[in-house]
UniProtKB/TrEMBL annotation:
Ranges that cross the membrane: 36-60, 81-98, 129-147, 154-174, 194-216, 237-262, 282-311, 323-342, 348-375, 387-408
Entries under InterPro entries matching the protein: NRAMP_fam
Topology term for the membrane: Multi-pass membrane protein
Signal peptide per UniProt: none
Protein's UniProt name: Nramp family divalent metal transporter
Length: 410
């Protein structure tokens, strides 16, 4: 009997987009607007499933990642230079900047759980560094250095399940308003001042580097599977499980923040505040579960972000295994430096956001062209898939336009 649910390469996508940025965005959405923006989360999950299905199918059928397929499709020299430059700027430079945030977010979770240990306090006082950033960075390096794909996948599945347990348990402890939750999910509204939060909720879920990650990991996962139809069925079951699970995790964070903050006149600065604020009302268990979820979210993204950048570079530039390893290693080291010293590379992050804003619709369009090309033979897009893909492309175009406008004129 064919499995309807399973966990596989799509779990890497969930591990990638459920990072500290998503946790903070969902927390602020819930704290400031209650459940009103859940429709944006639902849309982002659906859009992610549509795009990631195409990326996975491309990887399975061609046996190559998105980068390799783009290299084959884009032959005009000027277009190739422009596309490669955008990918390097958005995926490689961007993930290097965001890596510091991944490790900092994971550190907040670790600090909420073990921060009062005397050894931790001593290291902070005498070195001026964040010891958690260094330790978590080393863990990310060890996982990627020693792990074959199967081991990395299993490790990330474990982190995603840990996040699920932590965040969903926290939500249940805080007893959300189910009526308001379903209303916010099914009746789209944008409260006054919420436009930026809507963009952020969608933008933290639908990201271009996840397409490189999923296509390459799917090609690796099913490279020995001669039955493409069977591999695609397994991938579909994987998508049905992992991406909605990521949406459920985000919903749990938003719901917890809505219960703890919305309508109570309280201000929240970051997700660490959310973890600490739960204890007086909901007990220590809620605080520790929230902190554990934040730790798992940061660590999972700290592993997948460098890996996605390395996959993109390998595909476009035909990197050798040594250069592939060096590329993700450098990104982790940059993140460790940024996080451990408490730096805020705002100009680099701004640059990465602009590059991402330009890249997302371009990569979406390239993906649509690839899955309609002769590369996929009988597995090309159907009319229904093209209609859905075109709708998501239009949404990414609007999202990116708004992101660029805000980056330059806000």
């Amino acid at each position: 009997m064919r499995a309807y649910f399973r966990l596989g390469p799509a779990t890497l996508v969930t591990a990638a987009f459920i990072g500290p940025g998503t946790v903070v965005t969902a927390s602020l959405a819930g704290a400031n607007y209650g459940y009103a923006l859940l429709w944006a989360l639902l849309f982002s999950v659906i859009a992610t499933m549509i795009l990631q299905e195409m990326a996975s199918r491309l990887g399975i059928v061609t046996g190559k990642g998105l980068g390799e397929n783009l290299r084959h499709l884009v032959q005009q020299p000027l277009l190739k230079v422009l596309l490669y430059s955008l990918v390097v700027a958005a995926v490689v430079v961007g993930n290097s900047a965001y890596q510091g945030g991944n490790l900092t977010g994971a550190s907040l979770g670790a600090d909420a759980i073990w921060g009062q240990q005397s050894l931790v306090l001593s290291l902070k006082q005498h070195s001026g560094l964040n010891p958690w950033s260094l330790l978590l960075g080393v863990i990310a390096i060890v996982v990627l250095w020693r792990g074959r794909y199967q081991r990395i996948e299993r490790f990330l599945i474990g982190l995603v399940l840990l996040m699920s347990l932590a965040f969903i348990s926290t939500m249940l402890l805080t007893k959300p308003d189910l009526g308001a939750m379903f209303s916010g999910m099914l009746l789209p509204t944008i409260p006054s001042g919420a436009t930026l939060t809507v963009i952020a909720l969608i933008g933290t879920t639908v990201v271009p580097y996840s397409l490189f990650l999923h296509a390459a990991s799917s090609a690796t996962k099913w490279h020995n599977q001669p039955n493409k139809a069977q591999a695609l069925a397994e991938s579909a079951a994987d998508l049905r499980t992992a991406i909605p699970l990521g949406g459920l995790i985000t919903l749990a964070v938003l719901s917890t923040a809505a219960t703890a903050y919305f309508g109570k006149g309280l201000q929240m600065e970051n997700a660490g505040d959310l973890a600490l604020s739960l204890q007086p009302v909901f007990g220590a268990a809620a605080t520790y579960l929230m902190a554990l979820g934040l730790l798992a979210a940061g660590l999972s993204s700290a592993i997948t972000a460098p890996l996605a950048a390395a996959y993109a570079l390998r595909g476009l530039l035909q990197l050798s295994p040594q250069w592939f390893r060096l590329s993700w290693l450098l990104i982790i080291l940059v993140g460790m430096l940024v996080s451990s010293l408490g730096l805020k590379p705002l100009s680099i992050i701004w640059f990465a956001q602009v590059a991402n804003g330009i890249l997302l619709p371009i990569i979406t369009l390239c993906l649509l062209l690839a899955v309609n090309s002769s590369l996929l033979g009988t597995y090309r897009n159907s009319l229904r898939q093209n209609v859905l893909g075109a709708a998501v492309f239009a949404a990414t175009l609007l999202l990116s336009g708004r992101t660029l406008y805000l980056a330059f004129f806000s």
